[in-house]
Input
Amino acid sequence: MNTASKPRLVHSAILMLVLSLFTLSVARADSPLEKHMEHMKKAYKELSLGLENPQESNQAAYVTLAETIKSSALQARDLVPELAAKLPPDQKATMVKSYRDAMDDFVVSVDGLIKNLKDGKWDEARKDAANLKNEMRDGHREFRRE
Ligand code: HEM
Output
C-alpha cells in the first residue's frame, strides 16, 4: 500500500463508524408508545415517592400525577405494541384487542387511585399504586418484546 492511500482508508473507516453509530441510534429511538410509557414511569415514580410520606398540602399534585398516568395510558392504548406489529394480521388483531382490554382495565385501576387520592385515603392509594405495578408487570410480560 502506498503512503498516500493510508489517510483515505482511515477517513473511510471513520465515516463507516459514524454512519453505523447513527443507524444504531435511529433504530433504538423510542417509539411513540414507549414515549407515553416513559412519561407514565416518571409520574408513577414521583407519585410513589410522595405517597411514602404523604402531605395534605401536596394532595392536588398527587392527583395531577395520577391524571398524567391516566392520560399517558389512554394515549398508549390506541397504539400498537411492537411485538404485535410483527405478527401475521389475524394474530396481530387478537393481540391488539387483548392489549387494549388490559390497558382499559389499567385505566379503571388508575381511576380508583385518583378517587382515593381525592379523598385523602393514603393507605388505599398506596395499595392502588402497588396494584398498578402488578398490572404493569403482567402487561410487559404479555405484550412487550424481549
Ligand atoms: C405504571 C405502569 C407502567 C409503567 C411505569 C410502564 C413503563 C414502561 C416503560 C418505561 C417502557 C419502555 C422501556 C421498556 O421497554 O422497558 C414500557 C414499554 C412497554 N409497556 Fe409499559 N408501563 C406500565 C404499564 C403498562 C401496561 C399496563 C401495559 C399493557 C397493558 C404496558 C405495555 C407496554 C409495552 C407493550 C411496551 C413496549 C413498547 C412497544 O412495544 O412499542 N405497560 N413500559
